[in-house]
UniProtKB/TrEMBL annotation:
The keyword Iron-sulfur does not apply. This is Class D sortase. It holds the Pfam family Sortase. One of its GO terms (molecular function) is hydrolase activity. Residues 48-75 are annotated as: Disordered. InterPro entries: Sortase, Sortase_D, Sortase_D_1, Sortase_dom-sf. The active site is at residues 134, 191. Keywords: Hydrolase. The keyword Protease does not apply.
Length: 216
């Protein structure tokens, strides 16, 4: 008799435990589902959210809120230059020197003047525009240019004035020279040291920020 009561008590305890576990499991999953649904609705892409918004009547004007920066490239340079094409000139007031700029940094371009790294934006555009030149030709005196000096670039898009914010000496393999920038930047690079005989192991870098522009 006692064994029968113990079995019934054990069975009843197991049944209650299973019921409580089921209630807890259901409640926990419902909470996770509700939380996930809320986050999805809160951070859903605008394209999905807008589907439930009633469109304004066609007879009412709508306001274009697209940032003008998105069309900067098209406004300044409707036609992109080809490799080897002369795109403008670099004027360095400190040295009283004007240097032609060619699109590309192959030896053909660097033999004629300053080369514009084709993987970077064009002068005047937002982001990092990178120029390079030989230390024994166009940039022989670039070591005299430092913080606070101006670099002026003139192209078909207008005149863009940059002010040198930083001077860097980096290894020849340093790729941070060409990384994107959060603002309109002109990065000018040449081999270093200037009096080194042979292939120089470092690079002299001028990092300049756009301070003013006159668009054509």
């Amino acid at each position: 008799m006692k064994k029968l009561k113990k079995k019934r008590l054990l069975l009843l305890s197991c049944t209650i435990a299973i019921i409580l576990f089921g209630v807890w499991f259901s409640t926990s999953n419902m909470y996770k589902f509700a939380k996930g649904y809320f986050l999805y609705k809160t951070h859903a892409p605008s394209s999905q959210v807008n589907e439930t918004v009633q469109k304004p009547p066609s007879d009412k004007p709508t306001i274009d809120k697209t940032p003008s920066n998105n069309t900067t490239k098209k406004e300044l340079y409707p036609v992109r230059p080809k490799t080897g094409e002369e795109i403008g000139e670099l004027y360095i007031p400190k040295l009283k020197t004007k240097l032609p700029i060619f699109h590309g940094t192959n030896e053909d371009e660097l033999e004629k003047g300053v080369g514009h790294f084709a993987g970077s934006v064009l002068p005047g555009e937002n982001d990092n525009s990178v120029l390079s030149g030989h230390r024994d030709t166009v940039f022989r005196k670039l070591g005299q240019v430092g913080e606070g000096d101006l670099l002026i670039v003139r192209t078909s898009a207008g005149e863009f004035t940059y002010k040198v914010n930083k001077v860097r000496i980096v290894d020849e393999d340093d790729r941070t020279v060409i990384v994107p920038k959060p603002r309109a930047t002109l990065t000018v690079s040449t081999c270093y040291p200037f009096d080194y005989i042979g292939s120089a192991p470092e690079r002299y870098i001028l990092v300049a920020y756009l301070t003013s522009k006159t668009v054509s």
